[in-house]
Amino acid sequence: ELPPSEFMQVADSTWLVLSVVSNGREPPGCQATGVTKIARSVIAPLAEHHVSVLMLSTYQTDFILVRERDLPVVIHTLAGEFDIYKEESGERVPVTCDDVSNGFLKPKPPASPTLHPVQSPQTRFCVLTVAPDTLPAIATMLIDVLFYSHSPSWDASTSSQDLDSITFFSFSLIEGYISIVMDAETQKRFPSDLLLTSSTGELWRMVRIGGQPLGFDECGIVAQIAEPLAAADISAYYISTFNFDHALVPEEGIAEVIQLLQQRQESGR
């Protein structure tokens, strides 16, 4: 419904959304949440089969977007580990490999993935939700923050010196559930009684992945970050965008995360 515009670029691919519902079979002792919870069972296998994914973590759950043309590979890859369902008229219908076997081609082994640089700004972030019926009370503030408070920089090659003042604000509305990621300073502008967070009220630090626009074709970017964090049992929210990927980790664990990812890069050289 959006009018065509020279300022809007639309990717050619159509994407499908996968949501992973726990059945209580997580490994004992695993406390990690977010993308690290599904790193070994979903993210890594898809990367091994050369499936490009976009990751969207929210306050409520995590979503994986895959290109529609990759669906046969996705089903064949995950069917051994998961019961897979599709939605038809609001109902869950089981999916089997036979449903998508027509035209299935075993993917070629992926080339060695590119090791993208990672950077971590000093900014502290909050992961929040808002009750839908209170959204009108903060609508004006949301519009101001989203569109007017910051002058966006169109230079994709932002230098590391500018990272201390990085602008990052994420708002998602999925099936009535609202999820917001904002820096701690921006949070102070909102009525505190309307923003809901976990009981511990933890703050998060960001690891930004990429030195230039990542695009949508490369696979394994999420896996490169999620697997080391999963091995260390570190929770992470993960948000993919066209230009960069962003992992949010608990503030107290940022030093360990940077060390883990630096070791990953050194071992990959």
Automatic annotation (TrEMBL):
- Superkingdom of the source species: Eukaryota
| Family matches, as Gene3D superfamilies | VC0802-like
Where is it chiefly localized? Answer: cytoplasm
Q: Which GO terms describe its molecular function?
A: arginine binding; identical protein binding
Q: Which PANTHER family match?
A: CHROMOSOME 1, WHOLE GENOME SHOTGUN SEQUENCE (PTHR31131), CYTOSOLIC ARGININE SENSOR FOR MTORC1 SUBUNIT 1 (PTHR31131:SF3)
This chain's function reads: Functions as an intracellular arginine sensor within the amino acid-sensing branch of the TORC1 signaling pathway. As a homodimer or a heterodimer with CASTOR2, binds and inhibits the GATOR subcomplex GATOR2 and thereby mTORC1. Binding of arginine to CASTOR1 allosterically disrupts the interaction of CASTOR1-containing dimers with GATOR2 which can in turn activate mTORC1 and the TORC1 signaling pathway.
Q: What is the lineage of its organism?
A: Eukaryota, Metazoa, Chordata, Craniata, Vertebrata
**InterPro entries from the entry?**
ACT-like_dom_sf (IPR045865), CASTOR1_ACT-like (IPR049479), CASTOR_ACT_dom (IPR027795), CASTOR_fam (IPR026249), CASTOR_mTORC1 (IPR051719)
Q: Which Pfam families match?
A: ACT_7 (PF13840), CASTOR1_ACT-like (PF21389)
Gene name, Swiss-Prot/TrEMBL: Castor1
One GO cellular-component annotation of the UniProt record comes to: cytosol
- Its recorded name reads Cytosolic arginine sensor for mTORC1 subunit 1
What family is this? Belongs to the GATS family.
Which proteins does it associate with, and in what oligomeric form? Forms homodimers and heterodimers with CASTOR2. Interacts with the GATOR2 complex which is composed of MIOS, SEC13, SEH1L, WDR24 and WDR59; the interaction is negatively regulated by arginine. Interacts with TM4SF5; the interaction is positively regulated by leucine and is negatively regulated by arginine.
**Domain Cytosolic arginine sensor for mTORC1 subunit 1/2 ACT-like, chain residue ranges per copy:** 116-199
What is one GO biological process annotated to this record? negative regulation of TORC1 signaling
Question: Where does the CASTOR ACT domain lie?
Answer: 11-78, 201-262
Q: Write out the entry's keywords from A to Z.
A: Cytoplasm, Phosphoprotein, Ubl conjugation
Q: Where in the cell is it found?
A: Cytoplasm, Cytosol
